[in-house]
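Blinded run. Sample ID left blank on purpose so nobody reads anything into the name before looking at the predicted structure. Input follows.
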Amino acid sequence: MSELKVKSGKGELLLRKSKNLVGLKSAGTKDFKEADFVKKEVYKNLGGFNVVNLDKKGRSIDDKLDEVRMEDEVNVGTHVYYASGSTRPLVPTGEIYIIFQDNTSNDEQHIALDEYNLRLVERRSEYRIIAAVTKDSPNPIKVAGWLQQVSMVKLAEPDLDTYVDEYAPFVAPDDDLLEHQWHLKNNGIVADANFPLKRGADAKVFDAWSRIGNTGSRDVVIAVIDNGFDVNHPDLKSKLYKPFDLWNQSSEIDQGDPRFTHGTPCASVAIAASNGNGIVGAAPNAKFMPISGTSFSLRATEQMFDYCINNGADIISCSWGTTDPAFDLNPMKQEVIAKAARKGRNGKGCVIVYAVGNEDLDFVNFYSAHPDVIAVAASTSKDEHAFYSNRGREVTICAPSNGDWPILAARASWDEGVSWETGAFQFYRDGKNRGSKYKHFGGTSSACPLVAGICALILSVNPELTAREVKDIIVKTADKIGAPSEYVNGHSKKYGHGRINADKAVAEAMRRLDSSNSNSEPDPVVEENVAKGRGIFNFNVKRQEPVGFGVQIGAFAEYGNVLIQVEKLQRAFDTDIIVSINELKGKTVYKVVVGAYDNRNNAKLLLSKMKGKGVNGFIRNLKDLK
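Blinded prediction complete.
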């Protein structure tokens, strides 16, 4: 599937072409509902186009659209695109908003328009125009990308249309057991048990939802590696995405063994659906990738993490491991985890979350000690250290779990129950029945997927963050709980960097997104006389043979602008500057090229260096200059 990168708003969009949707404009007034080449009309009007699902009959979308454009009732046809991480269809309207550099003349601006057969639609100011493609123009998205590489163009943004949200006040989930989920929002009491908690001793998930106006993105995928997934549970069954069972090497997850029930409650803490019934996860919109079959085997470890890398997992939650010194991680397993943390998500890295363990030890689960993972300890509903939670310098963060009052989580249908303090088998600590599909749960097994769900909220607002950046955000936005003396240089062996704060973490992810989109370097200052083509210059003019490769940065009609560019480029890159002087429609045109190399690879290296300094351009074979 082809991809195009375009400027949009404060940043860039990476666009992928839809395999089935196109935009069509009618030659008359009729729509396309009855056309034999249309499967379904999807949107009546986006950017002036009817968006339809084509009946391709086994052909590619490109070939079918070319065929449809020949139909009498079709006036214009365009591809439809999706931005990376979005499911909203984007339709190019055919117009391009162009901002030229200051001091660019009208003649130079028309050179850019003529080169791509663009039509001037409206002039907004001396350097701002709206242009439109014609029947002789290439795709408007491609044209905008090419224009953006021209030095005289400050911004070229194609006009794209999509549907917008009709905003209403954020409405929190209303699942009927939500008031029991104190780890999401702690109001100071368990209502039906009259059990006092510490108000505010929670992960601030409700506040995070309110900040972003929703409960997270549907594009984020959380892989939970564990055993005992009830994939038919009402809070999980609608969310399945590429499940895999390591033990039977199949997408069919083994179910029903009463020895294995752990995966169901773990997954629910992270991603239980908001469906009006039962509980809700920290990221109820996230997709659920169950990977069943934990194993110490190197081969199985490789397979489970490689499966996550190759199948689109953004976050990997692991509430298991070992503290037996005989089974510490060997270098090969260390490399397996490191690979996922650095190579997953197309190089941004999978966010890997591990529980530190429940053995009340002064060292953590060996898997959670890996430097590339987020190691999660447990705190209680009183904002205290959970007595069972392992301690150590590798602890990254703590998150609310049991130790005072337990967490409510999903229960596998074959779960036979657990023994609490009374020694009797029951599902709820106080014996009160809260439904056959749920149970009390806890340990670092619950704290870990809670953090995984919060990581999904972070990636929902800023999907470009690397795994390392997500970990950094969690560390820097944590709330210090416990005694100040517990912390040395901001870190506690019990609490890590503190109790996770989803709201602060989401706010920081949003801040970093805004910051990354607004970074730009100012242009070098050029003397006024130079801009007007006046002054004293040291020329070294020699004839250049039309052989080799360089980087063209633009074409100019004003000699003063040529001087500006040459001065900037020589100062920045200390290499030959080639100027091709020709006539275009009776006017002199200067094409400026940086470098003259024997092979294209050297020109590519120069282009990379130029882009690193904020100078756009494209590879030019000198024999093509004319």
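Unblinding after everyone has recorded impressions. The mean pLDDT is 86.
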